[in-house]
């Protein structure tokens, strides 16, 4: 069980405020999306939450512990899969464990238990070039999970995929999240993607970026196949477009 709290966080580059007074929460087993325009501070906020940047003000709490400016407590996956082409899928997945000083054989054994769960059984000895885009993203997500099994920060992980593959990945990720009980904070520019996946959506707008709205998606998950065609879906989309 994990709870992430971002408490009144502000961050500036060279005295120019990028994000200001950010207050947000991620509860156990939630998927929460962060929506906003390009350059609005979403990635900067992720850098603060992951401990890569130290905020000028505020703090980040994980299960009550102050982790501000301390990398290694939450996992962070960028838009590109960043799999190393000269390593097998198995050895790409265990990289976080090797960095922590774990034995390679033991790391392979630990990661091996999750290949079937992530739909990657049979890919262990293959190389990234031998997998489709969707399968590479699955491998990258498994690597992210092996870094931290509680909270994941995903920065537009499905944006490079074609529409059909993205739809399949959405269903797959929600199913995997449910099985492994991972909590996810998710950056996207895709309003429909945010509505389909999220329990809640935060809107980050303005310069400096501030949280200006929190939208709760009441439709239970997994969402029905035709949810994107319903009146409720269109009302959520209209509300978000009005606020952005």
TrEMBL record:
Keywords: ATP-binding, Nucleotide-binding, Transport. InterPro entries: AAA+_ATPase (IPR003593), ABC_transporter-like_ATP-bd (IPR003439), ABC_transporter-like_CS (IPR017871), ABC_transporter_ATP-bind (IPR050166), P-loop_NTPase (IPR027417). The keyword Metal-binding does not apply. The keyword Acetylation does not apply. It holds the Pfam family ABC_tran. Gene3D superfamilies: P-loop containing nucleotide triphosphate hydrolases. One of its GO terms (molecular function) is ATP binding. Residues 4-233 form the ABC transporter domain. This is ABC transporter ATP-binding protein.
């Amino acid at each position: 069980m994990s709870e992430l709290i971002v408490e009144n966080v502000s961050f500036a580059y060279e005295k120019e405020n990028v994000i200001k007074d950010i207050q947000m929460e991620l509860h156990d087993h939630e998927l929460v999306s962060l929506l906003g325009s390009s350059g609005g501070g979403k990635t900067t906020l992720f850098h603060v939450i992951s401990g890569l940047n130290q905020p000028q003000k505020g703090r980040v709490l994980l299960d009550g512990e102050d982790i501000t400016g301390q990398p290694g407590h939450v996992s962070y996956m960028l838009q590109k899969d960043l799999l190393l082409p000269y390593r097998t899928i198995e050895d790409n997945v265990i990289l976080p464990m090797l960095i922590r000083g774990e034995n390679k054989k033991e790391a392979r054994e630990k990661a091996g238990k999750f290949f079937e769960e992530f739909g990657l059984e049979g890919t262990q000895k293959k190389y990234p070039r031998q997998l489709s885009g969707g399968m590479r993203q699955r491998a990258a997500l498994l690597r992210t999970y092996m870094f931290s099994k509680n909270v994941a920060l995903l920065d537009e992980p499905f944006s490079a995929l074609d529409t059909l593959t993205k739809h399949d990945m959405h269903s797959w990720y929600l199913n995997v999240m449910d099985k492994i009980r991972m909590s996810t904070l998710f950056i996207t520019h895709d309003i429909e993607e945010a509505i389909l996946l999220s329990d809640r959506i935060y809107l980050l707008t303005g310069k400096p970026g501030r949280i200006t709205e929190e939208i709760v998606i009441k439709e239970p998950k997994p969402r029905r196949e035709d949810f994107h065609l319903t009146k409720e879906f269109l009302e959520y989309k209209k509300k978000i477009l009005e606020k952005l």
